[in-house]
Amino acid sequence: MLTRQGKMSAAAAAYRQAMYDRLVQNDRRFLDELWHPDGDRDPDFIIIGAEKCGTTSLFYYLVQHPNVLSSLRKEINFWSHYADYGLEWYRSQLAPHPAQGQWLSGESSPSYFVSEPAPQRLAQALPTVKLIILLRDPVDRVVSYFYHRQRQNAEFRSLETAVDDLLRTFAHDPESPTLSALTSGFYAQHLRRWFQHVDHDRLLILQAETFFAQPDSIMAEVHQFLGLPQIALDSYRPYNAGSYPAAEASVRTKLAEFFAPYNQDLATLSIANFTDECVDSHVDHRVNHFSGKTTELS
């Protein structure tokens, strides 16, 4: 309400109070050891994307680490949508903590990855923040996005009809704003924009398929990247998971052919952690033939 009214300082104060209440409720140590109400902190890490590639699960696994403090909400979307609200508004939603020591705080906003202004904005304001990116076979990402929209009652076409409409629109108007389901999968284009503004050693780019299959090994890599002590969770249950029918082979073939040149473009970047499978969409990739369903982390 305060944000919508343009009262940004008042909104920031309310966010700080909400953060204080949550931290103290979760661990009383914050009352004396960590709480610095007059010292907002920049994030130490941000998961910047990509959407429908497992970022929700990655974030909630990460904030279960005893040395990681969650943002007030997972997706702040500041650098992509709300930069004009000001840094005080942004920082008030991050956990303040001592600059020295093992404590880290961060957020996860997948909208940043595809945002044109986000890389420069973020790099100028946060020159030391570490960024994590999950990338997934773009065919699977489109299918996941479609069924996510259906669950939200925002999509009523069949998958085949929706894909045909997208491909038809792209052929006639590739700049159409209705094509984000496709253009979000042009990974190399988005990565090059980030590479222009952020040093490679501050970017960790991970393969979503490996994360889905081996979350423990990927989390170990994330902990190492952030300089955190290694821990393993008792359970890696999926967050925001979806279960839906496997896409028809004909639909996957259309999408695989469409994404082929963009996947080859990604291959030219020679990104560590990526297998050939990640940049080569297969018709039967990740389909569970036993159940006829595809289940994912989100």
Tags for this model:
globular; disordered C terminus; single chain; 14 helices; alpha/beta; 298 residues; 5-stranded parallel beta sheet; Rossmann fold
Task: Provide the CATH top-level class.
Answer: Alpha Beta
Helix-strand pattern: HHEHEHHEHHEHHHHEHHEHE
Q: In this structure, how is the largest beta sheet organized?
A: 5 strands, parallel
Low-confidence stretches: 280-296
Helix content: 40-55%
Number of strands: 7
Head-to-tail CA distance between termini: 29 Å
Could you say which structural class the secondary elements and strand pairing correspond to? alpha/beta
Number of helices: 14
Rg, Å, rounded: 20 Å
Oligomer: single chain
What characteristic shape results from the CA principal axes?
globular
Structure description:
The protein is α/β, with parallel strands linked by helices. It has one domain: P-loop containing nucleotide triphosphate hydrolases (Rossmann fold, 3-Layer(aba) Sandwich). The chain is built from 14 helices and seven strands. It has helices at residues 8-26, 29-34, 55-62, 78-81, 87-91, 111-114, 118-125, 138-151, 159-172, 180-183, 187-195, 208-213, 215-226, 249-267; strands spanning 45-49, 68-70, 104-108, 130-135, 203-207, 242-245, 293-296. The chain starts with 7 loop residues before the first helix and ends with a strand. Residues 280-296 have low confidence and may be disordered.
